[in-house]
Design a protein that fits this description.
77% of the residues lie in helices and 1% in strands. The chain is mostly helical and 425 residues long. The chain has a two-stranded antiparallel sheet.
Length: 425
């Protein structure tokens, strides 16, 4: 069966899709605290900043690991790393469910972040090995799409499971899925593609890796590009992944299930928009113009979402979808990164960019919680703090400011025209 699979013309896509499926799974785990926000805040008696800090434990492991992940991917290849990382995610999820104390839950969340650190970079590394380079923006969008499917599954399906069987059993089931996925990753993924003329699997020379890392770190384009990625990604890391559902419940007066469904529209917008922007950008051979146009559109939409009163649920569905759709242009920063870096250190360059992007979760999840606590009126319902619409408007102002800053920075980033630089092939 495995021999027949390897001869299939679809085999490269199957391998990359499995990497993307792992990214889908880790994203499901990433956003799970927002789905269970009320239950967790009540169970552990958390304030807003404490809940933000708990969720951010994921990023405390994820973000600093990115450089190490990139070097390991370029050195050892994705197969064994993704398999071990998936087991880490399953173990951390089990700890999160079984822990009776916040310290154990924090440790489990940290371990999930550690395993998740390999997902997106690993999937993109598989794409550099198995697929043509002129499809990288499209593939980045497709991988992001599957991640958003995981997020939507978390928002909708996990919420239903929590309501039906309780949050602990739902999380235990999530851990079991991780164990099964790890076995599939090991059985199917391969690190080498001898038929691909552009593919490099991994290098055995750490000296070359570190020299490539140093060259990448010194590249101004990489840092500015990563900062744009961070600012546009806040639509997910600072809003949809943690504060979107509580905002819709408390500031807009929606039920938990309606809030989860509407919040999931941001992920659906990303799921649809990622491949669309990747294809469109590849087609017109431009990166900067799509990013600036979509970012400006996202800026207008988030201002409507946050500051226009009396929005109906149906209007919120549409606005959140469009906000996610235009924000998903962020996937193009990974194409810019790929086109600005030598292929032998592609994993390292992508990881550095992803590290910058994910810093937003470390910084802004607790910051928004702190801003909410500063304007809290003292209201508590069922053991959880309730924040006013005004408090959310103030705390979430970081979103329009960040998008505006991303637009400004784009004027200082060189257009790559969808082409690898000479010497980077």
């Amino acid at each position: 069966m495995n021999a027949i699979l390897k001869k299939s013309i679809l085999y490269p896509w199957i391998i990359v899709s499995l990497g993307a499926l792992y990214y889908c799974y880790e994203y499901f785990l990433r956003i799970s605290p927002s789905v269970m926000a009320s239950e967790l805040m009540q169970y552990y008696n958390l304030t807003g900043v404490e809940f933000g800090n708990f969720s951010a434990y994921y990023y405390h492991a994820y973000t600093p690991m990115q450089i190490i992940v990139g070097i390991l991917m370029d050195r050892y290849g994705p197969r064994r790393l993704l398999t071990i990382a998936c087991f880490f995610c399953a173990l951390g999820t089990f700890m999160f469910a079984s822990g009776g104390s916040l310290a154990v839950a924090d440790s489990g969340r940290f371990l999930v972040g550690l395993g998740s650190a390999f997902a997106f970079v690993g999937a993109l590394k598989l794409a550099t090995i198995w697929l043509p380079p002129n499809r990288f923006a499209l593939v980045s969008g497709i991988i992001t799409c599957l991640g958003m499917v995981g997020a939507m599954t978390g928002d909708i399906v996990l919420r239903l499971l929590v309501d039906m069987i309780g949050w602990k059993i739902a999380v235990y089931l999530s851990a079991l899925v991780g164990v099964l996925l790890a076995l599939v990753l090991w059985g199917v993924i391969r690190d080498s593609n001898p038929s691909h003329v552009h593919a490099h699997t991994h290098t055995t020379d750490f000296k070359n890796l570190f020299s490539g890392l140093w060259a990448t770190i010194r590249t101004r384009q990489i840092w500015l590009n990563g900062l744009v990625g961070l600012l546009l990604y806040l639509s997910l890391s600072a809003f949809a992944e943690i504060w979107g559902i509580p905002y819709l419940q408390q500031a807009r007066g929606l039920s938990p299930s309606d809030a989860a469904s509407i919040n999931s529209m941001i992920f659906l917008g990303w799921a649809v928009g990622g491949p669309v922007w990747g294809w469109f950008s590849d087609y017109i051979e431009l990166r900067s113009l799509p990013i600036m146009f979509a970012a400006f559109s996202a800026l207008l939409l988030v201002c409507i979402i946050l500051y226009v009163p009396g929005l109906s649920a149906s209007v919120c569905y549409l606005l959140m979808f469009l906000f996610g759709f235009f924000s998903s242009v962020q996937v193009l920063v990974f194409a810019v990164c790929r086109e600005s870096s030598p292929i032998r250190v592609a994993g390292t360059a992508i990881a550095l960019t992803n590290m910058v992007v994910m810093l937003g979760g470390n910084v802004f999840q607790p910051v928004i919680g702190k801003l909410l606590d500063m304007t809290w009126s003292g209201t508590i319902v069922n053991g959880a703090r309730v924040y006013s619409n005004t408090a959310y408007e103030l705390a979430l102002t970081v979103l329009p400011i960040s998008i505006l800053l991303a637009i400004v920075i784009m004027f200082f980033i060189r257009e790559t025209h969808g082409q690898l630089l000479e010497g980077h092939r």
